[in-house]
Amino acid sequence: MPRHKETERDKVMGKTRLLLLEAATDEFASEGYNGANINRISKAAGFAKGTIYNYFSSKRALMLALIDLIAASHHRYMVERVRQEEDPIRRLQRFFEAGLEWIVHNLSQGRVMLTMLNGPDAEFKLRMWQGYQPMHQLLIAEILVPGMELGLFRQLDPVATAGLLMTLYLGIGSTVSDEGRSQLAPEWIAGFVLEGLRQGAG
Amino acid sequence: MPRHKETERDKVMGKTRLLLLEAATDEFASEGYNGANINRISKAAGFAKGTIYNYFSSKRALMLALIDLIAASHHRYMVERVRQEEDPIRRLQRFFEAGLEWIVHNLSQGRVMLTMLNGPDAEFKLRMWQGYQPMHQLLIAEILVPGMELGLFRQLDPVATAGLLMTLYLGIGSTVSDEGRSQLAPEWIAGFVLEGLRQGAG
Amino acid sequence: MPRHKETERDKVMGKTRLLLLEAATDEFASEGYNGANINRISKAAGFAKGTIYNYFSSKRALMLALIDLIAASHHRYMVERVRQEEDPIRRLQRFFEAGLEWIVHNLSQGRVMLTMLNGPDAEFKLRMWQGYQPMHQLLIAEILVPGMELGLFRQLDPVATAGLLMTLYLGIGSTVSDEGRSQLAPEWIAGFVLEGLRQGAG
Amino acid sequence: MPRHKETERDKVMGKTRLLLLEAATDEFASEGYNGANINRISKAAGFAKGTIYNYFSSKRALMLALIDLIAASHHRYMVERVRQEEDPIRRLQRFFEAGLEWIVHNLSQGRVMLTMLNGPDAEFKLRMWQGYQPMHQLLIAEILVPGMELGLFRQLDPVATAGLLMTLYLGIGSTVSDEGRSQLAPEWIAGFVLEGLRQGAG
DNA sequence: TATGAATGAGAGTTCATTCAT
DNA sequence: AATGAATGAACTCTCATTCAT
Fold it and tell me: What is the pLDDT at residue B13?
């Protein structure tokens, strides 16, 4: 069993799989899960319709794989940006800035995420929420708790607060237009939120 | 008692029509637009499958009628509750309280609203946003502007602020579970928001 | 049982029935039998959809009644015109002239006739052919046989010849456009046919 | 042997496609367009109901393809037979003979042709007339004009005359019974027509 | 007689999925 | 691994017909 060949096949496999997932992103984004057409996805990726079943066992499995991919990619992006700052206040600002940026630069992925989080399919919703747990953790462990410890933020339930911030972020994300413009500026939001968080309030 | 007028009103808001809209609410809420089955709706309302087409010209027309109904009913509910208070601060608290209440008591309607606002169908999204304009107006004209005039809130762009509050409200609404429980208490939210709005901040 | 009332009802019955048949003519002409919509017919006649079933037991029965009406009315028209002439040659010319006239002035009835004669429904086709037997008789007994007896036409099988002339007439009728214009002038046809019939030929 | 070209030709004139068109011919012939059942066609061709949509985008598209096929096949048949003769008179006789033959041997195709030419659907009618233009040309360019030039026929408008002959032919075709018997013998018709055409008449 | 709400069989069409090549 | 013809369940929508009023 030559190792080299295995690696090559993996590479090809990976490439095709990614092409299919990319095409799926656009289709699911513009049509929703039920409205999406599996054959169209395979064609858009440059393959015949049967090909997609060599990589995903069903339409549902494809969506679940896509959900995982989106959540992981989004999280990676956010972690990288947020950690560029040290100060929790700056980190919070970065969180909203980077969050909007990611959505604007990944409109289809963003739309899939929001559609799944708000859509009626319980399995997809759950999987998406699970995928976004690391981002909750990022908010809690690397922004809110340090901020409270440093006395920058008042003492709040970090879990509930992180939930509120995620909710707010997702809500704002859903106002991003198809052309990638948001009605609400991230700095403005961050400023507003910092008022609610800041020490001395209440 | 003019018979013609009666008949016309019946046509627009007859018993059968309402039964169908109610059944449609549940079906669309649990299955989404594309996943919904129009025969099942008619059956669930207690009629044969063809009957629904005596009232709505297509599945799409049914959804549009439902969107209008939901937006109007939601707005009516909010207006009634919010106006029971005079003070803008109390009104803002009421806004979040009543908002959550409405969603908890109208889970299916709420889910339809959120699914449409975040879903991929541009026409439905637009129609829903249009239907919610009166609620934006309620926030602006009866809460934010009076609050600023009374010096309770700092001077902010009322339109952007109303957008932020609606976004926040809708985001919170989307966290209400299928059993009608929200992770975020409305008073807590309102408190947080009031910090961001209050005079003397920033 | 007052006789007067009976008569009135008959009159109303007759009027309504005729209105329905008129509307049916247009609908069947433009949509064909299967494509025709019974409700639309009733509405076009000024009645609610149920009404038509007070006069015709089914869509099929309506069409059969219409076929009889068309054939009888067409025949009446032709007899009246043809008998205005005495000479068989003039009568033959009149036959084509009046035939085209009738179609041009009764476009919908004409189209129903032609559609039924050429359509796939055996029952309708048969009924229509039966309805047109009197016109065959008119050709045979009042044009061809007298013409042969007077030595104006050569001796031909009158039945086959009548069949040919009817076939030709119906074929020409089918070339009449929706605006009521025919590509072939009736005099020209009649002239051509008279060449084929005339004594001394062959 | 380029594989691609094979595939393309298969797509246009593959076995399955032809089987479907054959089944469609019978169904449309016996039921008319609106009465035809597309599932029945696919089943009759030996396939599942969905299969037909792999070859024709809609019922209407199927009919249009069938119209083209019928017109082309009919024309091919006529050209081959008519050109076996040199003399315009013999060619005209052949025209009627072969025409009847074709209908008798292709009853379903013939019925579809006649139904479409006389039916209420404008698009089908137009397409069928267009498909039959080559047969008009055959009459004009290879029978009537040569006959006039040779002095066998009198000088007539060739277009109008061709129209009359086609009309007559189609009319006669419509009298062919379901068992394939015509009331009018083709020689008899041709003889009658030649009387109308012959030099020295009028 | 006239009405029109309700019915439900039936049609065209879509598309996820299978599988032989 | 890739293909694409074939499948058939499922869905939206139509409309002839019934019937209580």
Answer: 61
List of long-range contacts for D186-191, beta carbons under 8 Å, 24+ apart: D186/D93, D186/D96, D186/D97, D186/D99, D186/D100, D187/D93, D187/D96, D187/D97, D188/C160, D189/C164, D189/D96, D190/D92, D190/D93, D190/D95, D190/D96, D190/D97, D191/C202
What's the CA gap between B162 and C59, in Å, rounded?
Answer: 60
Q: What is the CA radius of gyration of chain B?
A: 19
Annotated domain spans of chain A: 1-56, 63-198
Nucleotide nearest to C45 (CA to C1'): E2
Contact C160, D183 (CB under 8 A): yes
- Is the sign of the CA dihedral D27, D33, D34, D37 positive or negative? positive
**C-alpha span between B129 and B141 (Å, rounded):** 18
The whole-number average pLDDT for the span B70-94 is: 97
Q: Report the SS3 class of residue C153.
A: strand
Question: Which residues of C have a CB under 8 Å from any CB of D?
Answer: 29-35, 111, 114-115, 117-122, 160, 163-164, 167-168, 170-172, 174-175, 178, 183-184, 188-189, 191-193, 195-198, 201-202
Global pTM reads 0.91
Q: Nearest Cα to A33, choosing from B35, B125, B122?
A: B35
Measure CA to C1' and name the residue nearest F14: B50
Look up residue D140 and give its two tokens.
């004009």
Yes or no: say if C162 and C139 are a contact pair by the CB < 8 Å rule: yes
Domain C63-198: which CATH number of 1.10.357.10, 3.40.50.720, 3.90.1640.10, 3.40.50.300: 1.10.357.10
Nearest neighbour of A119 by CB, restricted to B32, B188, B195: B32
Is C170's CB within 8 Å of D171's CB?
yes
Which residues of A touch chain B, with CB atoms under 8 Å apart? 29-35, 111, 114-115, 117-122, 160, 163-164, 167-168, 170-172, 174-175, 178, 183-184, 188-189, 191-193, 195-196, 198, 201-202
Per-block mean pLDDT, blocks of 10 residues, chain A (202 long) = 47 81 97 97 96 96 97 97 96 96 96 95 96 97 96 92 92 87 85 82 48
Residue-level pLDDT at D66: 98
The predicted pLDDT at position A202 comes to: 46
What is the distance in angstroms measured between the alpha-carbon CA of B48 and the sugar C1' of E6?
8
For D183, nearest residue in chain C (alpha carbons): C160
Mutation to test the A interface, candidates B33, B60, B167, B199, most A Cβ within 10 Å: B167
Is the CATH code 1.10.10.60 the one for domain C1-56? yes
C-alpha–C-alpha distance, residues C180 and A156, integer Å: 85
Tens of pLDDT, residue by residue over D114-133, are 999 999 999 999 999 999 99
Return the structure tokens found at A140.
């809690």
